[in-house]
Each structure stands twice: as structure tokens, then as C-alpha cells.
């Protein structure tokens, strides 16, 4: 069998207010073509199909259209489990209808392990794969909260709950395999955070359990799994060096911190030799870049030189690069945005975010490392200026009122002019 493991699509996610539907559509088109070209038998999606629990109509359209494309291909099975960004009830709603297309959806954990252990059959109705389709395990699914418990007790209960859940589905999977009398692979899924897992700044990966990290170790997973398809972390990686416990990573960069990261999906192959399945062999298939992201950082000379380089290598057959510009020069530049807009004039590049470290850090007083001027409204900026210039507290309310009246009158003049 050939199995394709992917996760963390986050359909509908925006980047600094910019919609990315064209990227998602291009990825799903590429994925459908990759499935066909590689004669994939089963597709596993390990959570975070959507970016929010209430996806837009456009996001839903992309998802269902893709499932129909795959159902019409040589791929015999699709297994989708929910991640922490997904709504279990939303994913589950069309579950019975999707079964007719051999698309199996597990949106949430239930009291019965049967709901998560899937026996997939080939065209001759012979069993060929068992999938322990474990979705994101919510706090309430795996432990009972008690008043007065410590963080350590909560952590221990979460880890024990996850371990117990996987042990139950794995035991049922082994029982089914024995009853079937067939030497077929058992694959597990999961949407969680393993100890030592790699993340990058701005990737949008959320902590899963409030008040606790609950990072599990590789030893928590049953030994009977021939492959474990994980989701949640966006960096493609092995767990504890294991070839068969992997995060496929997100197929699109979720932020500029992932801009230089090679994205991929995992092709997992099992061969049959004299009726026995071989160990899984894993090959990474690189995902193309559908929208170029560039983080440009430095002083003004460095930034302007880099923008000039990017404009010289601009590919007219692709959409222009999206830029994040981080200015950390010594000179205070008050008209940084205007300079940058002039620098990209006549190109197809677009600036999505500007972070002026000099203004924020030395003029307004930065509160946290990721703060930019875009994070502050006009009142925030004025109040920061009052604080930085040590204006007495008793004078600030009156100055703020006068400032707000001035801004309001300017806004009214603009409206009248229109």
C-alpha cells in the first residue's frame, strides 16, 4: 500500500489580513495530482483541516471539492481527523454522507474505541489497512477535573489520559487484526505536541492544554503501530529520531518565520512479501511554493538593497512576493512606510507587515518582542509618547482628551471632503 500523510492545512487562514484562498486552492490541486501520479491508496489528514471552528463558505468549498476529486481518483480511502483548530461537530456533520465516498471522518473522541478503529478494505473487499484514527483529544475527553488540583496533578492526568486512550484503540486494532487473520499494517494518527518538538516564531501553533504543556514522549504510543501520522507542529520532523513517528508539517508557511522552510508531505509505503507486510518506508515529497514570502531585515541600506535584489529576480509567471520588513537600524526613520512603498513601486511585490524596531523600542517603548506599530492604535501611540517623555500623570487625561478631539476633527474634515 501507498499512504500519503499530511496535516495542518489551516484552510481559511489569513496572513496579516491578507486572504490566501488562491494558495490553498493551488495546494489542494497539487495534492490531488500528486495522489494520482503516485498511485496513492489512502490519504491521512492528521488534523487542523480548517483554521477556525466556523470556516467560510469559500474554505468549505475548497475542502469538499478536493474530497470529490480524490474520491474520483485511484485513491481508495481518505481518513480525516480533527485538530484543535477544527470544530468536531462541523467536521462530523457530513460524516455519514462522506462514507459513501470512502472518506472517513473522526471529529472527536467518543466513549467507544470502535468509532476510532477503522478497517479499510480493497476493491476485492479484503482488509488491507487498520487505522486508529485518533483526533485531537480535548481536556474533557481524557481526564476528570477536580477542585484544588495542582498543575502537576493536571499534567499527570492529561498524560495518563492520552496514554490510556491510545492503549485502548491499539488493543482493539490488534484484536481486529487477529480476528481477520491478515497480516496488515496498523497506522495511528494524533494531533498533539510531543516533547522536543520543533516550532518556529509566528507559526500559529497553540498550546493545547491551558495551564499545562502536556508534551508527550514517544514512549506513550503503542508498539503495534507500524506508522504514526501526527499533526499540530508545522515543522516537518521525526519524533525522537523515529522513521515511523512523524509530523508531516503544514503544507503552506503559516507565517514569515516559515518562509525559508521546505514544506512536504509523507509518502508511506508497505510491501507484501509472501503474505507478510514489510516495515514502512517513508519518502518526503516536497510541496511547491505557491506564494513567495520574504522577511527583509536590517538597516535602511540593507533593506533597500535586498528589495532591489528581489525585484531583479521577480518571476512574471508567478505572483509577486509578500514582504515582512523589520527595520532595526540606528537612524530614526519616521517615514519608513513611505520609503518602502516607493522602493517597491513598479514591482509586483506587496508589503504585508512593517516592524520599525527603532521607533517602537527607543521612541515608544516596546512591551513585547513581536509588537509593531500596526499593533497600536492612535491613542496607544499618544499614551506611549506621554509615558516616554515622562509627562506627569495628573496632566495626561486632559492631554489625551485634547488629542482625541483633534484626531476626531481631522477625521470629520476627511469625511466632509469626500
UniProtKB/TrEMBL annotation:
Pfam families: Metallophos, SbcD_C. Residues 289-387 form the Nuclease SbcCD subunit D C-terminal domain. GO terms for molecular function: 3'-5' exonuclease activity; endonuclease activity. Keywords: DNA recombination, DNA replication, Endonuclease, Exonuclease, Hydrolase, Nuclease. InterPro entries: Calcineurin-like_PHP, DNA_Repair-Maintenance_Comp, Metallo-depent_PP-like, Mre11_N, SbcD, SbcD_C. GO terms for biological process: DNA recombination; DNA replication. Residues 1-92 form the Calcineurin-like phosphoesterase domain. It comes from the Bacteria. SbcCD cleaves DNA hairpin structures. These structures can inhibit DNA replication and are intermediates in certain DNA recombination reactions. The complex acts as a 3'->5' double strand exonuclease that can open hairpins. It also has a 5' single-strand endonuclease activity. Belongs to the SbcD family. NCBIfam families: sbcd. Heterodimer of SbcC and SbcD. This is Nuclease SbcCD subunit D. It comes from Desulfobacter postgatei 2ac9. The gene is sbcD.
Amino acid at each position: 500500500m501507498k499512504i500519503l500523510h499530511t496535516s495542518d492545512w489551516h484552510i481559511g487562514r489569513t496572513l496579516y489580513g491578507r486572504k490566501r484562498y488562491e494558495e490553498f486552492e493551488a495546494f489542494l490541486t497539487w495534492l490531488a495530482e500528486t495522489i494520482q501520479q503516485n498511485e496513492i491508496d489512502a490519504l491521512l489528514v492528521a488534523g487542523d483541516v480548517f483554521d477556525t471552528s466556523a470556516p467560510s463558505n469559500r474554505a468549505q468549498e475548497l475542502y469538499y471539492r478536493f474530497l470529490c476529486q480524490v474520491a474520483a481518483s485511484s485513491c481508495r480511502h481518505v481518513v480525516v481527523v480533527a485538530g484543535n483548530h477544527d470544530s468536531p461537530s462541523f467536521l462530523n456533520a457530513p460524516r455519514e454522507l462522506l462514507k459513501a465516498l470512502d472518506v472517513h471522518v473522526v471529529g472527536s473522541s467518543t466513549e467507544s474505541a470502535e468509532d476510532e478503529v477503522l478497517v479499510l478494505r480493497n476493491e476485492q473487499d479484503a482488509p488491507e489497512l487498520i487505522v486508529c484514527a485518533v483526533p485531537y483529544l480535548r481536556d474533557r475527553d481524557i481526564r476528570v477535573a477536580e477542585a484544588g488540583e495542582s498543575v502537576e496533578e493536571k499534567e499527570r492526568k492529561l498524560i495518563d489520559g492520552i496514554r490510556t486512550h491510545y492503549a485502548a484503540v491499539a488493543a482493539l486494532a490488534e484484536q481486529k487484526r487477529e480476528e481477520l487473520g491478515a497480516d496488515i499494517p496498523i497506522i495511528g494518527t494524533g494531533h498533539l505536541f510531543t516533547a522536543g518538538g520543533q516550532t518556529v516564531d509566528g507559526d500559529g501553533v497553540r498550546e493545547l492544554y491551558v495551564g499545562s504543556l502536556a508534551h508527550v514522549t514517544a514512549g506513550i504510543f503503542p508498539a503495534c503501530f507500524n506508522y504514526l501520522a501526527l499533526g499540530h507542529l508545522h515543522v516537518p520532523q521525526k519524533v525522537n529520531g523515529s522513521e515511523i513517528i512523524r509530523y508531516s508539517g503544514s503544507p503552506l508557511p503559516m507565517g514569515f518565520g516559515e518562509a525559508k522552510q521546505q514544506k512536504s508531505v509523507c509518502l508511506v509505503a508497505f510491501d507484501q512479501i509472501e503474505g507478510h507486510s514489510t516495515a514502512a518506508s517513508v519518502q518526503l515529497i516536497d510541496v511547491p511554493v505557491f506564494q513567495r514570502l520574504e522577511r527583509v531585515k536590517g538597516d535602511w541600506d540593507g533593506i533597500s538593497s535586498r528589495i532591489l535584489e528581489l525585484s531583479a529576480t521577480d518571476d512574471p509567471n508567478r505572483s509577486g512576493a509578500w514582504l515582512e520588513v523589520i527595520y532595526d537600524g540606528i537612524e530614526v526613520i519616521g517615514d519608513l512606510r513611505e520609503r518602502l512603498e516607493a522602493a517597491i513601486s513598479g514591482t509586483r511585490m506587496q508589503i504585508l507587515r512593517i516592524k520599525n524596531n527603532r521607533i517602537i523600542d527607543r521612541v515608544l517603548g516596546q512591551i513585547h518582542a513581536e509588537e509593531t506599530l500596526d499593533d497600536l492604535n492612535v491613542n496607544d501611540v499618544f499614551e506611549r509618547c506621554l509615558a516616554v517623555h515622562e509627562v506627569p500623570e495628573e496632566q495626561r487625561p486632559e492631554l489625551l482628551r485634547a488629542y482625541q478631539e483633534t484626531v476626531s476633527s481631522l477625521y470629520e474634515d476627511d469625511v466632509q471632503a469626500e
